[in-house]
Amino acid sequence: MAMRIAVMGAGAVGGYFGGVLANQGEDVIMVARGRHGTAISDNGLTVDSHWGNFTVQTGVTDDPSTVGNVDLIIHCTKLYSNSEAVPALREMVGDETTILTLQNGVTSGSIIAGYYGLHRVLQGAAYIESSITGPGHIHQSGSTAMIEFGEDDGVPSERTELLRQLFDKPGIQVRISSNIVDTLWSKLVSVGSIGTIMTASRASLPEILRSPHGKETIRLVMEEIVAVGQSQGVTFAPRCVESKLSDAIAEADEFQSSLQYDLTAGKPLELDDILGAVVNIANDVNIPVPASAALVTVLDKFKRGR
Fold it and tell me: Which of 33, 233, 242, 258 has the most CB atoms lying inside 10 A of its own CB?
């Protein structure tokens, strides 16, 4: 049976995955504001990707209360918008609605569950390099555009299989996680370290790696995130830090940071919910994280945007 799908926050990530689904014939409505939403409404959504370029006409609105009940909400707004965005989902949530969150960090699932119940929420992680290059225009680079999600208990379910089938399309890789909390923390090792360092230094990843202490700084922040995660019962893969660092070095030219993009654009930052959350947990359990705390301190004055 066809699913009715809403993308809450059709930016670089949500817009890409929603655009691919719409281009493959799925029933998708985008929730997008401003010039980006207007451009999608007027001209369709244009996506440039590793798998080819396309423009697709799809429903779009800036008011989620007008959408009605849907089968799936792909929640992709910025974390700092959750206080407004999560309650705004209400009119789209029916008895059988699943809310798949692809937000960064490790707190999104519990926040959404607090409003709508854990049974409606699937936590997920997106692995993609994409950006909005202009209103209604998304550019994706590299051969990875993956969504990984799973039930909290790690047991595959009917809905995880239905979503696996939904996302199994050209331009999307999909994987069901057997431990989604470990998966989210594993992603945080890269996003929380590299993205924050790029933002604080106003530098690309290749520039950081060429600096005298860049590689060691990344390694140190990664190690701090792993230590904090382990204090919360998270299991990381063996040699997790070295593996993440090697992957980042291999893909340095394509590595993008949404945090850095938002700083450059004068937008609010997801600082408190990514590396800031790690520092807060570390303080609660008395784990020293001096490098992470320094980065959060450097960026604190910018987190509300300009």
Answer: 258
